[in-house]
Amino acid sequence: MTVEAPTGPAALGQSRRGRWGAGSIAPVVVILVLLLVAVGIRQPDFYDPPALLAFLKRAAPLIILAAGQYFVIVAGDFDLSVGSLVTAEVVIAARLIDGDPGATWPVVALVLGFGLLVGLVNGLVTTLLLVPSFITTLGMYLILVGAVYTWTGGSPRGALSEEFRMLGRRGIEGVPWLGEIPYAVLILLVLAGLAILAMRSDFGKVLLAVGDNPRAARLAGGRVAGVRTIAFVVSGGCAAVAAILLGGFGGVSFQVGAGLEFTAITAVVLGGVVLGGGRGSVVGAMLGALTLQTLLTLLNLLGVAGALASAVQGLIILAAVAIGGLRART
Amino acid sequence: MRKKTGTALAIFAAGTALILAGCSSDVPATNPSASASADAGAGTGETSEFFVQADYDNEIALRTTSATGPSDKPWEQALNPQNADTAKYKKAGPYNLCFSNAGVGNPWRQVGFKNMQAEVKLHPEIKSFQVADAESKDDKQISDITDLLGKGCDALIVSPNTTATLTPAVEQACAKVPVIVFDRGVNTKCPVTFINPIGGYAFGAAGAEFLIEKVKPGGNVLALRILPGVDVLEARWGAAKVAFDKSQLKVVGVEFTDGDAAKTKTIVNNYIQRFGNIDGIWMDAGATSVAAAEAFEDLGKPFPAIVGEDQQDFLRMWQDKKLTAVAPTYPTYQWRTPVIAALKILKGEQVPSPWKLPQPTITDANLSQYVDPSMPPLHYAMCGCSDLPGYPGDWGGK
């Protein structure tokens, strides 16, 4: 690679911009530790292994969505379609399975395929037709909302099988000391490992370079359109996995994906990833999601009404982007 | 220096969030040491501006009123009927009926609309039934009503999307044809009749009274609401609050779920962890009651006393897991009544105005009558639809 990208080192928080510079994960780690301490003071048995694993199980879908969103954002794009994609996937799965256990695995495959396909369409429209990703994915969001509404007549039909729900709801039981290891946590660990590997590969380096300076990346021989498209495909696939976990956890609902695109973007930004691309690590994005989930848990423990939680989320976006801007200028 | 400023800001922002959170935690609901008290407002917050004492008193009285009409057809029954004379609307059939529907955007409205379409099929004197779906938009419903009036309707049925905004459109329609309004009301007396079940106060009180009976004094109750500011949902909570304030129960939280199952489960999970256990769950609508009960199951806790609604998924779980549960209903059979009313009006027969329908509650005693494994999970059991043409296939059943 001839592209000089602020990549690997930045991911480790040791770039020339410094440990605290734009894109580093140090701030989110500090915030996360503070929040975890606060939760621990308020709720000491939060740190019992089973309770902690249950918390991770609930956080897993958001962390996976944030990882997917990271790939898109770090290349300088947005994916606003993931929330409606999650809803669409859960509604489609319920309608196709309709309570029949035998249909579970074919439908899981179909859900994953549909997620990848939606990502591919987002990517191709953005890179080949040169539509800004903000508009492409906003359009996809509206298409999915409208299509699902038309197909279902406004409310989900059918039911998910227990086998389908198992992935988001159950785990390997009877593990000594830990209790139950949720499947969602195992899936999260595998995907997180894959995401970190992907960012360390050539693909990851080109992706960061594209986000940092697309023209330079193209001149340096990077397959700009290719990696940007793959980023959307990854995001679509992550949304599909998140849908399987969320549908399993909560069951069929029309609200399951509502607002998730913004929650995922908040998480990514909180993780130190710079909107506009080029800086930040996937570990930071996933830690951002974990931090956000911890914050929401803490707010609940403190008895803060749910409505205020979205205000806090808004504050985080504004603060993180503003601070990111300040840090970028240093 | 600038780098440090950034970090300091980040920590400051996080700190501010914590401080904000700390301040708002001063509400009584979050104080675990608060004694179980019968004080007004203990744990249940302020009385909402939506609460109307006269309406509350009226609905509570109607709960014990016996209905007139055939007892096996509650959609034809009426509570305290005051009959309206309709001789001036009498005309010869066949009839063109028109229906302006607020939307079919939730399972309750879908089941209801199926009921109405099937009811129309029962009456050969209805020549045509024209429907406009407003897709939950006020402006579309206003133009829908105008459009329908130009299509030769003999009578117009309206299920308003919102009360105040649709009132002028309904008044305009009243000048041309007899109008029947049902479900949500309008702020005008011009429709020939207004049809709905007893209402939100009766619904909310039924669930709260069940918890007061089943949960031991001092027990923790969590109230789950969909969202604030919707009159019928505010009425349900308003009545529950009155009951809880008079009781020995401790309402440890009142939370909004947005009707989202995953969010509901997370909230319930957090409350169980925070308080050790929750003894009762009150809900203003049943859509997420299964998710709330599953939260207990997943943590290995015993099920609480729980309030649901008449959806099949909840009724099935209630029966399978032997829940301590109750299901107040807002019956979808009310969608049959407007068609019956329209035909009575066009034939010059008297109709009750307003037409208050009975609003039954499903309990352990009559649960088995309503559970039906062949119907889809989101089907509303109190539909009065099993004798209708096309049942159960048209409702998604097998």
Describe the 3D structure.
The complex is a heterodimer of chains A (330) and B (398). In chain A, 71% of the residues lie in helices and 3% in strands. In chain A, a hairpin with a 3-residue loop joins β1 and β2 (179-182). By secondary structure, chain A is mostly helical. Chain A has helices at residues 8-11, 26-42, 49-74, 82-97, 104-128, 133-152, 162-169, 183-200, 202-212, 214-219, 224-250, 260-270, 282-301, 306-329; strands at 171-175, 179-182. Chain A has a single domain (8-329), classed as ABC transporter involved in vitamin B12 uptake, BtuC (Orthogonal Bundle). In chain A, 55% of the residues are buried. Chain A is globular. Chain A starts with 7 loop residues before the first helix and ends with a helix. By secondary structure, chain B is of the alpha/beta class. Chain B folds into two domains: 28-62 and 200-329 and 360-398, 3-Layer(aba) Sandwich (Rossmann fold); 75-198 and 332-359, 3-Layer(aba) Sandwich (Rossmann fold), CATH 3.40.50. Chain B is 38% helix and 16% strand. Chain B has twelve helices and 14 strands. A six-stranded parallel beta sheet of chain B has the order 3-2-4-5-6-13, sandwiched between helices. A six-stranded mixed beta sheet of chain B has the order 8-7-9-10-11-14, with helices on both faces. In chain B, β4, α5 (163-174) and β5 form a beta-alpha-beta unit. In chain B, α4 runs parallel beside α5 and α6 (200-214) runs parallel beside α7 (231-246). Chain B is globular. Chains A and B meet through α2, α3, α11, α13 and α14 of A and α1, α3, β8, α8 and α9 of B. Chain B: This is Ribose transport system substrate-binding protein. Chain B: GO terms for molecular function: carbohydrate binding.
